[in-house]
Amino acid sequence: MGSTMTKSSKKHTQGNTLGNQKTVSDPAKNKSMLWGKQTDLSLNYFAIGKHTFEQCFIDALVSIKRACAQVNHGLHLISDEQLKAIVFACNELLDSKHTDQFPLRVWQTGSGTQTNMNVNEVITSLANTYLLQGAQGGSAKDNARLHPNDHINMSQSSNDVFPTAMHIVVAQQSLDILLPSIERMERELSKKQSEFDELFTVARTHLMDALPIKASAILSAHEQQLTAAKRAIEEGLIPVYQLALGGTAIGSGANAPKLFGQQAIVVLAEQYQLPFVQHENLYAAVSGEDALMRFSVSLKQLATALFKLANDFRLLGSGPRCGLNEWHLPANEPGSSIMPGKVNPTQCEALSMVCLQVFGNDLTISLAASNGQLQLNTYRPVIIHNILESIELLSDAMSSFTVNCIRGLKLNHAQIDSNMRNNLSVITLLAPILGYDVAAQIAYKANQQNVSLTIAAESLGLYDQEKFESLLQKQLNANLSDKSAD
């Protein structure tokens, strides 16, 4: 996620070695570039890697700028024509125009100042062009001309704008793509439970044979883990809805009018139709990132549930001749370039790798949130980069697994029947009647002689086969009904 560079950004990766820093572009000479000096400086001094910010994050920054301009206009700090120009520029960007104007890398200043200024500069260029060529019929008054710091960044600081954008985009992406992906997987698991409800299979504990279990119950457990993770994500969003806007540089609100932050947040809440409010302590909102750290933990919980699901699916589908081979996973593509006919649990492997990436991202987010000394967390770019990557990867992987694995899942009835007949742990159901020691003696005899429990009981002189089978069936019927709903 965020690993692709725009064409503009690729121009700045060459000739930029330590000790030989030089400006590599001149926006005044290249009309395709809408950014200004601060963006150019960042391209020079932070040509690190290929990761750039996701467009959805840039859009959140642009939306903040538009909301702030509306509030500043209401406070008579900018003119009508300036507001129109800023709103025009922001709308152009939110319509996915000029997406190549945001080339800065994630690996920059920890406050995100360079990206905040990149947005300010691009909006300024578009807005001033509007003033010159559009609303003003070819000319604009000098006092209407806009400045990236004085007007677009008015009443703001990178220190409150950047974390506000982080919270907005995390909430938006969670509601737009992550939670719907979980719900699709829940629905597909529920459908499969109905399909598999009448069939019993062998449960395993410690990877060893255990009591019989409904095939639907196996999926029910996974669905419940997903539901719990979804609930954790929804609860984790509550503090994410609290925004830092209005705190400016250190949380004191310096250079911002009274109630500016609350008023801008009302505009943003209306735009996104989300319950955004100002953080109750702006000093905490600017200096720390506890909310996203806690939210990342909920993503880790989801990844943990998915990792177990993927591993259980691949174990039950292992084979086809020398594994458990109880589940038929969809054969989507050839599994080997050398072994003909081999099919691998590729969806399980892809989902597992995504989960491992999320575990790593969570560790990075935790370390980043615990740092950033004194009045500002200075690890925010890496926090938002990792958390958005986790959201995107989990959403995509769940959608892929749901469609390409769960939906086409089938049961191998012949193998399940064979395993059920050979399952010695069924004797557990007779332990309350026979006693633990006698039941263990029958199971040991059956395993030692490789015979059924019924034959073992008869060979020990305990029961004839017909009576033992009748007793066993009675206990099976009494114990294997689904009691989880009681």
Structural class determined from secondary elements: mainly alpha
If you average the pLDDT, what whole number results? Answer: 91
Number of strands: 6
Distance between the termini: 45 Å
What oligomeric state best describes the polypeptide chains here?
A: single chain
Spatial arrangement of strands, main beta sheet:
1-2
Question: How would you sum up the major sheet?
Answer: 2 strands, antiparallel
Q: Write down the Rg.
A: 31 Å
Strand-residue fraction?
under 5%
Overall, the morphology is elongated
Secondary-structure element string: HHHHHHHEEHEHEHHEHHEHHHHH
List the helices and strands and how they pair.
Blueprint lengths: L6 H4 L26 H9 L9 H20 L5 H15 L18 H23 L12 H5 L5 H38 L4 E6 L2 E7 H26 L1 E2 L16 H13 L4 E2 L3 H6 L2 H27 L10 E2 L17 H24 L10 H27 L3 E2 L1 H10 L8 H4 L1 H14 L3 H7 L5 H15 L7
Parallel strand pairs: 3-4
Antiparallel strand pairs: 1-2, 5-6
Write a structural description.
It is a single chain. The protein is mostly helical. It contains 18 helices and six strands. The strands form three sheets. It has a two-stranded antiparallel sheet with strand order 1-2. It has a two-stranded parallel ribbon with strand order 3-4. A two-stranded antiparallel sheet has the order 5-6. α9 links the parallel β3 (242-243) and β4 (277-278). α7 (158-195) packs parallel to α13 (380-406).
Keywords:
486 residues; two-stranded parallel sheet; single chain; two-stranded antiparallel sheet; mainly alpha
Please summarize what this structure is:
With 486 residues, the chain is mainly alpha-helical. The protein contains 18 helices and six strands.
